[in-house]
């Protein structure tokens, strides 16, 4: 290793101040949180640029650099022991990290003139080469003061959000170092504040300071950097003890183990073992063409109330009083509360009537809120919104984000609270089988795809209806067809082969389904891409009753089909296929129609003295 540069954060701060054209943006002493560095303002940072390094000396091969911004807000990871208690140590993190070879390759930095290339060299470090020939260059933005996360407030969430927005285009990913105590709140809050996110934001920290001999900080920081620098996971995540979780699904579950967090209702987004395995199916995507933005505003008139046996009405009244605008009621089991407490329920109802949004979340670590019990239904009746499987942390932060949208009406805010905005809750699967007989099927798909507006929902519905309706027709499931119809879908829509549900039902001979579809306006004249009508399909599969019904409804063969029918009739007659002949008769074909060599079925029946066939061919078929 070449000589290591040992610089302090105060050096970086001076540089940042010098670079800043308008001086410091530190706030006054009463501000809870100060973003100490001010780089970027009035300067043109080169951070986030990818250098293609060619021929930089034997030890350094051509490689690509990706840039990660590490926002250090504090927490145990950077704390030191002072007078027997752990406290954040200012101006120490960068200096100490530079001494750890797994966190900084000074040799590479010198040989590639890294410090000349990037702004803010004192706070920029580079990891050793990753497997895929990449270098993760990361810059640490130390906050001042560094905080124990128990001291953090919603204002601090906004500060972090604003810094992510400020440097969004300069970095490929973001890591936020944070205390574990309130990390689940901050990651939830940031997930809502960050709209149309396309880059990873990963919160991490540790249970033991990174400077101690045996600690979890190094592994956590390394994992977070590796993921933020290598994978475009467009979410606010929380990385801890080899697992990457969705930020708004996580909760702190242990204060004494390295496995401090869990995501009770959603599997991890990544497992970091010998390889980093990203569970791409679980990764949430923004489904948007809009630019990234941060809404740092929060409404602080929100609260959490945990129900317990014997809770007094006075407690509930005190909790719900103005200026409270939103509350999370932590209920029992699947969202239950005593239904023998009219006093309590009346207070909840009064609050929702005057516009307080109250979310019903379960006290259980795992599971969802659903109206299985009478004790759960009473809360719905009192105007509470089921929070499904949202964590209380996520529900609270969602409330403060939604309630800060002062331009929205109360109804719109309630609607947003019910929507799955950032993957914070699972689709409403309560009691639903994922089957076509469930009218919520498409809703569930829409929820999973994060579809919220009416037009998008209709587009999805229309795209999915034909194959679903055809599949329901195939199995003769009228209830499923009814459910699809109830969603406002047109049962005459055709699939990729131009086939309507009526075609399919006609093929299968499902008489009742055919009746139902005809009653819903399905067209007997629709032709699929092979030119076939439902009538031709029913004839082909010899469903006599369906052919009759279709004929009664006005189905008929075209003039050309009738003309060309002679050849088919003749060959059916030649093979003595009475049922086949009957289909054509029912379809309205004249049995004396000649085939390609002018022979007719009737002449053949006569020549072979087939009386039964002669009788059939001489009858006028009945449809009734
Ligand atoms: N009290 C610390 C904090 O949340 C605990 C930790 O970081 O693990 O900041």
Question: What features would you describe in this structure?
Answer:
By secondary structure, this protein is α/β, with parallel strands linked by helices. The chain is built from 23 helices and 19 strands. It has a 9-stranded mixed sheet with strand order 4-5-1-6-8-9-10-13-14, with helices on both faces. A 4-stranded parallel sheet has the order 16-17-18-19, sandwiched between helices. Strand 9 (236-240) and strand 10 form a beta hairpin. Helix 8 runs parallel beside helix 9 (342-353) and helix 16 packs parallel to helix 18 (534-540). The N and C termini lie far apart (96 Å). The site of aspartic acid has 10 residues, from loops.
Name its key features.
624 residues, alpha/beta, Serine Threonine Protein Phosphatase 5, Tetratricopeptide repeat, Rossmann fold, 9-stranded mixed beta sheet, 19 strands, 36% helix, disordered N terminus, binds aspartic acid
Share of residues in helices: 25-40%
Terminal CA distance reads 96 Å
Total individual domains: 4
Whole-number mean pLDDT: 84
Provide the β-strand percentage band: 5-15%
Ligands: aspartic acid
The CATH architecture designation of the largest domain is: 3-Layer(aba) Sandwich
| Name of the CATH first level of the largest domain | Alpha Beta
> Helix/strand/pairing class, anyone?
alpha/beta
| Poorly predicted tracts of residues | 1-49, 54-61, 429-439
Sheet with the most strands: spatial strand order:
4-5-1-6-8-9-10-13-14
Q: At the fourth CATH level, what is the homologous superfamily of the largest domain?
A: L-asparaginase, N-terminal domain
């Amino acid at each position: 290793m070449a000589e290591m540069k040992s610089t302090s954060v105060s050096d970086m701060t001076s540089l940042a101040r010098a670079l800043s054209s308008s001086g410091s943006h530190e706030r006054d002493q009463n501000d809870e949180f100060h973003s100490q560095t001010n780089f970027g303002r009035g300067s043109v940072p080169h951070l986030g640029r990818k250098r293609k390094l060619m021929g930089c000396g034997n030890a350094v091969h051509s490689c690509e650099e990706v840039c990660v911004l590490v926002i250090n807000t504090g927490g145990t990871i950077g704390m030191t022991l002072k007078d027997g208690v752990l406290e954040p140590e200012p101006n120490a993190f960068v200096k100490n990290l530079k001494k750890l070879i797994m966190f900084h390759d000074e040799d590479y930095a010198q040989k590639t003139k890294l410090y000349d290339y990037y702004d803010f060299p004192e706070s920029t470090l580079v990891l050793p080469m990753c497997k895929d020939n990449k270098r993760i260059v990361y810059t640490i933005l130390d906050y001042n003061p560094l905080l124990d996360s128990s001291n953090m407030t919603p204002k601090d969430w906004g500060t972090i959000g604003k810094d992510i927005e400020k440097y969004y285009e300069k970095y490929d990913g973001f890591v936020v170092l944070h205390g574990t105590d309130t990390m689940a709140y901050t990651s939830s809050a940031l997930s809502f504040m960050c709209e149309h996110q396309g880059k990873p934001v990963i919160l991490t920290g540790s249970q033991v300071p990174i400077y101690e001999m045996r600690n979890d900080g190094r592994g956590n920081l390394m994992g977070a950097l590796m993921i933020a620098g290598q994978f475009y996971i467009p979410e606010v995540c929380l990385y801890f003890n080899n697992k990457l979780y969705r930020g708004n699904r996580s909760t702190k579950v242990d204060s004494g183990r390295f496995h401090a967090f869990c995501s009770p209702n959603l599997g991890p987004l990544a497992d970091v073992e010998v390889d980093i395995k990203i569970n791409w199916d679980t990764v949430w995507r923004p489904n948007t063409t809009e630019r990234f933005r941060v809404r740092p505003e929060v409404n602080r008139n929100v609260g959490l109330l945990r129900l317990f046996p014997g809770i007094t009405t006075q407690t509930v009244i005190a909790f719900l009083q103005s200026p409270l605008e939103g509350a999370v009621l932590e209920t029992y089991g699947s969202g239950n509360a005593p239904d023998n407490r009219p006093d309590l329920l009346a207070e909840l109802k009064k609050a929702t009537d005057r516009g307080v949004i109250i979310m019903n979340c379960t006290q259980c670590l795992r599971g969802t809120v659903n109206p299985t019990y009478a004790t759960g239904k009473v809360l719905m009746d009192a105007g509470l919104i089921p929070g499904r499987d949202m964590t209380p942390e996520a529900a609270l932060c969602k409330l403060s984000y939604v309630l800060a949208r002062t331009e929205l009406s109360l109804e719109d805010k309630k609607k947003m609270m019910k929507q799955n905005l950032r993957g914070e809750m699972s689709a409403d699967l309560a009691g639903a089988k994922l089957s076509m007989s469930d009218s919520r099927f498409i809703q569930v798909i829409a929820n999973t795809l994060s579809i919220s507006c009416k037009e998008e929902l209709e587009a999805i519905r229309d795209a999915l209806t034909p194959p679903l309706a055809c599949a329901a027709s195939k199995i003769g499931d009228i209830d499923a067809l009814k459910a699809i119809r109830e969603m406002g879908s047109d049962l005459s829509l055709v699939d990729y082969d131009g086939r309507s549900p009526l075609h399919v039902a006609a093929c299968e001979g499902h008489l009742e389904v055919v009746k139902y579809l005809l009653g819903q306006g399905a067209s007997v004249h629709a032709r699929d891409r092979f030119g076939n009508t439902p009538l031709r399909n029913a004839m082909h599969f010899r469903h006599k009753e369906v052919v009759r019904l279709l004929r009664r409804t006005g189905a008929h063969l075209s003039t050309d089909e009738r003309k060309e029918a002679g050849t088919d009739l003749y060959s059916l007659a030649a093979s003595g296929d009475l049922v086949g002949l009957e289909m054509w008769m029912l379809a309205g074909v004249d049995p004396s129609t000649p085939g390609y060599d002018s022979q007719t079925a009737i002449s053949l029946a006569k020549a072979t003295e087939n009386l039964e066939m002669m009788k059939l061919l001489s009858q006028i078929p009945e449809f009734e």
